Amino acid sequence: xxxxxxxxxxxxxxxxxxxxxxxxxxxxxxxxxxxxxxxxxxxxxxxxxxxxxxxxxxxxxxxxxxxxxxxxxxxxxxxxxxxxxxxxxxxxxxxxxxxxxxxxxxxxxxxxxxxxxxxxxxxxxxxxxxxxxxxxxxxxxxxxxxxxxxxxxxxxxxxxxxxxxxxxxxxxxxxxxxxxxxxxxxxxxxxxxxxxxxxxxxxxxxxxxxxxxxxxxxxxxxxxxxxxxxxxxxxxxxxxxxxxxxxxxxxxxxxxxxxxxxxxxxxxxxxxxxxxxxxxxxxxxxxxxxxxxxxxxxxxxxxxxxxxxxxxxxxxxxxxxxxxxxxxxxxxxxxxxxxxxxxxxxxxx
Length: 349
Description:
This protein is α/β, with parallel strands linked by helices. It is 54% helix and 11% strand. Helix 4 (96-109) links the parallel strand 4 and strand 5.
């Protein structure tokens, strides 16, 4: 039997007001030396200052790095700063993009990484993968598994509602991602892990079941979403890849990023992609669409603020985004097939 290495987070803290536990958590995990905190201008106000206070209360020194545009350039800047300062860990405080920059920098320097999300827009808050602009690749790349995740419900609730809805779309997308993974296993002999697949699938169904609570921004609803996003990250850790969480629906989203001048949020696009890919898989795509509508998520091109032509174009090129077998096959959809798919599912009129 081949060796399957699984790196999992050592500490996950989810709840109201848990950001104050950041300093003690770092100490308990052995991060006693100087730390590096990576955040942005907006997220510094949203939670960064509170995170710094928690470190100071625990008598932990830190260097603060405020980034303006989370891209590959900033990854290299953080790497250089980390090599100069030699912190015991990098803490990312922010949304998915900032966390991904910090996570990738931690991987490049071999440092521990602590994730402190200020929004719940996608599963990057807990995954060992990172998507960063300017890397020259679409989709995610291998990064550092978070040693700890501190997800404060009160912080997440202050984020724009649209980000929370986007997170729901990203979790619901696991339904078709797992179906694509199983298909690749059956047709291509690709490794398939039932435990990781079940964890991702369960997360999607729990979010769908809790749609009303999430839409109403109740503490219970936000906690369910956060725990689902963390579970999806753990599923990727167990699988050793993003397979249980990223399939044809994600490839559609990445393709739309290319063809649309102003693409929507990642999770919003993945939600629309899930509707269409669920149709191809023979799944209950109408229920998926109904749940997304109930929480106020986009379910068509108009909601994404893109044209019908852009949707069709993205569908025809989605299979080329990465070397990953999905329901789209090896040759993808023809333009006429893509148009029919989008029309049948109501994504375009």
